[in-house]
Design brief:
The structure is a single chain. With 234 residues, the protein is α/β, with parallel strands linked by helices. It has two domains: 138 residues, Rossmann fold (3-Layer(aba) Sandwich), CATH 3.40.50; 84 residues, Ubiquitin-like (UB roll) (Roll), CATH 3.10.20.600. Helix content is 33%, strand content 19%. It has nine helices and seven strands.
């Protein structure tokens, strides 16, 4: 997603650190970062950051004298939307056509090259280092009772302030659209908000008081999805 691209371009080392911690937690010596080939700047910066991390001894053999080895490979995809689905992504990394496969077996049982595999997105992995630094209680103190932390959204459409924003879980749609987004362009009325990316749905103006958390969005008839948010006026 676009917000993941911005994270990789802006701070690739944070992604590498989060991925390394996740790999250490499950005792995996090999990891892959799957990224769209169209994101040339992100790919270049990510590869450079991996070289720096390897030279610094943070990746490779016997990392920081821990006895743990980890190699991270970058695999470039052709930009197919379907490869956002984990089994399609795995097929693409294996050099096959990116098509979703049946589940079960789930990737955690039989995934990449037939081995148990954990699949996470960029936004999840970059949350790991600050949680390690600040502790789980710090992270649990952000958001709602069941939806913790923050969420990055790409604001687009008929809204004054477009771009990427990060908000606490529990923030209302009204705050996101009017306080942060600056409201509807040219003083027009809000018609609907297309929420959750291509797999999401539209919420009408009466849904502005809905809280941005997984439970509330599901109850409202949409999903958090990829974090895309398109505002439509009258």
């Amino acid at each position: 997603a676009f917000m993941d691209r911005a994270i990789v371009e802006g701070d690739p080392h944070r992604l590498i650190e989060g991925l390394a911690i996740a790999a250490y937690a499950i005792n995996s010596g090999k990891a892959f970062i799957y990224i769209r080939a169209e994101y040339a700047v992100a790919v270049e910066r990510l590869r450079h950051a991996l070289e720096q991390a390897t030279q610094a001894g943070i990746l490779g053999y016997n990392i920081m004298n821990s006895g743990f080895n980890l190699s991270i490979q970058v695999r470039e995809g052709a930009g197919a939307f379907v490869c956002g689905e984990e089994t399609a992504l795995i097929s693409s990394i294996e050099g096959k056509r990116g098509m979703p496969g049946p589940k079960p077996p789930f990737p955690a049982t039989r995934g990449l090259f037939g081995r148990p595999t954990v699949v996470n997105n960029v936004e999840t992995l970059v949350n790991i280092p600050p949680i390690i630094d600040n502790g789980p209680d710090w992270f649990a103190g952000i958001g709602t009772e069941k939806s913790k932390g923050t969420k990055v959204f790409a604001l687009a459409g008929n809204i004054t302030n477009t771009g990427l924003v990060e908000v606490n879980m529990g923030t209302t749609l009204k705050t996101l659209v009017y306080t942060i987004g600056g409201g509807i362009k040219n003083g027009k009325n809000l018609k609907a908000i297309q929420f959750g990316g291509p797999s999401g749905s539209c919420l009408p103006e009466k849904s502005l008081d809905v809280s941005i958390d997984y439970e509330s969005l599901t109850e409202a008839g949409t999903i958090m999805g990829s974090g895309g948010l398109v505002v439509m006026d009258e």
